[in-house]
């Protein structure tokens, strides 16, 4: 049986890039969005989230900056770079292609032998 870690493995980068494609954000909000969108079925562990942020930033796919302290605690925000946006679009197209193949494999009619 698959668990949420199995499902997210391999897609964490694309999920984070997807969230940042909608606008600058920070870890807690991205994690909360994943839980809300999936009805609590999937979640990104804090360690996974911040390890991914560091890796994406080292690859120049995202950039970080410190937000204002005027609205509460100082937060590190992340922003998608042009390279990150291109990779997100490539990954999204690839996901669409693979999703169709996997759907066919799982739900498709039996092929003639």
Q: What do these coordinates show?
A:
The protein is mostly helical and 113 residues long. The chain has a single domain (4-107), classed as Orthogonal Bundle (Arc Repressor Mutant, subunit A). It is 58% helix and 9% strand. It has five helices and two strands; from the N terminus they run ααααββα. It has helices spanning 4-8, 12-21, 27-37, 46-58, 82-107; strands at 62-66, 76-80. A two-stranded antiparallel ribbon has the order 1-2. Helix 2 crosses helix 5 (82-107). The longest helix is centred in the C-terminal third of the chain and has 26 residues, at 82-107. The model has no long low-confidence stretch (mean pLDDT 90).
Number of helices: 5
Identify the CATH architecture.
Answer: Orthogonal Bundle
Give the terminus-to-terminus CA distance.
Answer: 29 Å
Low-confidence stretches: none
The helical percent reads 55-70%
Percent range for β-strand residues: 5-15%
CATH superfamily: Winged helix-like DNA-binding domain superfamily/Winged helix DNA-binding domain
Major sheet characteristics: 2 strands, antiparallel
Return the average pLDDT rounded to an integer: 90
SSE pattern, N- to C-terminal: HHHHEEH
Radius of gyration: 17 Å
According to DSSP, the number of beta strands is 2
Q: What class would the helix/strand composition place it in? A: mainly alpha
Estimate the global geometry from the Cα principal axes: globular
The CATH class designation is: Mainly Alpha
- Strand order, main sheet: write it out: 1-2
Enter the CATH topology name: Arc Repressor Mutant, subunit A
Integer count of domains: 1
């Amino acid at each position: 049986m698959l668990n949420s870690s199995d499902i997210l493995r391999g897609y964490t980068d694309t999920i984070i890039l997807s969230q940042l494609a909608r606008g600058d954000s920070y870890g807690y909000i991205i994690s909360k969005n994943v839980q809300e969108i999936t009805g609590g079925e999937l979640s990104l562990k804090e360690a996974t989230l911040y390890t991914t942020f560091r890796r994406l930033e080292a690859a120049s796919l995202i950039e970080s900056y410190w937000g204002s302290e005027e609205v509460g605690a100082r937060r590190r925000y992340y922003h998608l770079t042009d390279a990150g946006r291109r990779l997100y679009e490539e990954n999204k197209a690839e996901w669409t292609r693979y999703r169709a193949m996997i759907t066919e494999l799982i739900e498709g009619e039996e092929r003639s032998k």
